[in-house]
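User: Predict the structure for this protein chain, please.
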Amino acid sequence: MNTKTSGQGRVDMAGLDYSLGLLLRLSQLKVFQHFFDVMGHTGLKPGEFSVLWMIRSNPGIRQGHLAQTLAIKNAHMTKLIRSFEADGLLSRTIPDEDRRAVELALTDRGVDFVNRHEPDFYRHMETLESPLTEAETRELLRLLAKFAGIAQGGAA
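Assistant: Here is the predicted structure, written as structure tokens:
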């Protein structure tokens, strides 16, 4: 019998401790709470910061490609991009060769915003409490990247 300790004692997980979905959800909640503890002052959610981070690293990336890469619905991405544009963090360009596409780039203000919060982002990742060793954490990240269909380090 696998159990988890809660505020009210031990709970029989009844096999759910082998549920990938549940384990990913509980892990995500733990990581997101830590993100808000460290990065909450930015006013952004983890996914929002990821969008700015990716645009900084890929100036001129097409909005649809970014949405697909980060698994963000097009409607939500459009709303997010408009919000960032209104805040002066990014600019949108329609390329002449494809008038249906939108290319994204951070403004100077957007680059400054991401650069200013980059140390906090790395501190968030480095200070997340985990029972895993450093080697286990690297292996978990490698396996999650493989499971998600992305390669670590930016290589495909």
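The beta strands are 3-6, 9-12, 61-62, 90-93, 103-106.
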